[in-house]
Amino acid sequence: MCTGQCARFVGLSLITLSLVCIVANALLLVPNGETTWTNTDKLSLQVWLMAGFFGGGLMVLCPGIAAVRAGGKGCCGAGCCGNRCRMLRSVFCSALGMIGAIYCLSVSGTGLRDGPKCLLKDGSWDTPFKKTEESYLFNRTLWDLCQEPPNVVTWHVTLFSLLLAASCLELVLCGVQVVNAAVGVLCGDCRKKVGPRA
């Protein structure tokens, strides 16, 4: 597979993953699909850090688009050496995407470890799973500590797991594109040039 085709495949994959992250982060703001609990007192810090929107979303969308453009045909300006300038731009954008993916990965991992903020039996809003000795992820009986929002633990675990998996893939793909684009800058695009039509 030549550098242009690889860039296009990676770019389309990154665009898809970034949209998944944005949607997952938006859903985290509405526990159980309801806006009743959408305020700063009733959502965890990791939800408000918007790692899926900014890190895994917008910061990865940029290198995705750059990679698709780097894999496109044609020249990026008069006198330009093939797609090398697009590939060079893609190297820097992909490095930025790696930073965004790492941000999303770390916030999602912390959010998954700490668990959701929820209403406890004593009427207070807190993150009860931060204080438990064993992980709530492997002990579903602990999930009964949360009274409201309904199904908040399932909602939280599912969406943060999705963000975690997507950001891992984004990190790998951005790393692949950094290497691929660097090869494209040094060696050029391996696609055959089509001569002028008669």
Description:
This protein is an all-alpha fold and 198 residues long. It has one domain (3-74, 81-187). The protein has five helices and two strands. It has helices at residues 3-28, 45-48, 51-70, 84-114, 152-187, and strands at 118-119, 125-126. Strand 1 and strand 2 form a beta hairpin. The radius of gyration is 21 Å and the shape is elongated. Mean pLDDT is 85; it is low at 75-80 and 194-198.
N-to-C CA distance: 30 Å
**What does the overall shape look like?**
elongated
CA-atom Rg in angstroms? 21 Å
Q: Indicate the percent of residues in helices.
A: 55-70%
Pick out the low-confidence regions: 75-80, 194-198
Count of separate DSSP helical elements: 5
How many domains? The number is: 1
Secondary structure tally: strands: 2
Q: Let me know the largest β-sheet.
A: 2 strands, antiparallel
Mean pLDDT: 85
| Helix/strand/pairing category | mainly alpha
Instruction: Please state roughly what percent of the residues sit in beta strands, choosing from under 5%, 5-15%, 15-25%, 25-35%, 35-45% or over 45%.
Output: under 5%
GO molecular function: arginine binding
Organism: Myotis lucifugus (Little brown bat)
Membrane topology: Multi-pass membrane protein
Family: Belongs to the L6 tetraspanin family.
